[in-house]
């Protein structure tokens, strides 16, 4: 059972960590998101988790089109095809090896948005390491999708990723939508760090559409706010913040804009922590059943 704190404070979870109280943040646990949307967040969190597996022969029980890996950046993921939902799913893995963390995650300098399929007439800038990771696999992903669309021209696309994989997924989704503008595309990320500058955030929102973006944040996961805005970064919409435990539709807030002061931006970053490794009931990287 929960304790009964005042109505204007988050309820503490029953879990192995404690939900910190941050004065000034106000949430109404009675106003969450629809259960259907919550189930979609759960579903694509499982795809994001599956990208961490060395082998993922049947992502969420569906057809594996291809797995891809770049040795230098350790960028890994897969393209899957769900013939029941008529959907192609591209999922990207987050950091796992030390070389990946050093080469990619720590390259905080912003670079011009240039790469396979990306818009050319833009002044948007992105994290150099994230862009480098996307470039290492971007051409292959686009070529595989092109082949799939020749066989399945009416299939939709979903792009998913956790942590670093969420940042790469964001750039990849922009590339895919720019390359195949008539394709219905949705983007699901979990624990995504800030990826680019305000121009990049606006470009993502414009081309993909804020209603097609689902940027999940779990309670006080510190990774989404680890890269500070003072370095020129800004989140894109739309954030879905599970602001308290247990995970449930009523405990998820659909935020407004990219840096909603009543969203995860309202709490100080504590870096990589326990909430970063569990999203919408899915233990990230440690559940091989999502690949069979």
Spell out the key features of this protein.
alpha/beta; two-stranded antiparallel ribbon; 5 helices; about 290 residues; about 20% strand; Rossmann fold
The computed structural class is alpha/beta
Number of strands: 12
- CATH top-level class: Alpha Beta
> Might you state the CATH topology name?
Rossmann fold
Strand order of the largest sheet: 1-2-3-6-7-8-9-10
Strand count, sense and barrel status of the largest sheet are: 8 strands, mixed
Q: What's the architecture in CATH terms?
A: 3-Layer(aba) Sandwich
Tell me the count of domains. 1
The radius of gyration computed from the alpha-carbon positions, rounded to a whole number of angstroms, is: 18 Å
Number of helices: 5
N-to-C CA distance: 35 Å
Overall geometry: globular
Write the layout of secondary structure elements.
Blueprint: H1 35-50, E1 63-69, E2 76-82, E3 87-92, H2 98-105, E4 110-112, E5 125-127, H3 128-151, E6 156-162, H4 164-179, E7 185-190, H5 198-208, E8 213-218, E9 239-242, E10 252-254, E11 278-279, E12 282-283
Parallel strand pairs: 3-6, 6-7, 7-8, 8-9
Antiparallel strand pairs: 1-2, 2-3, 4-5, 9-10, 11-12
Helix pairs in contact: 3-4, 4-5
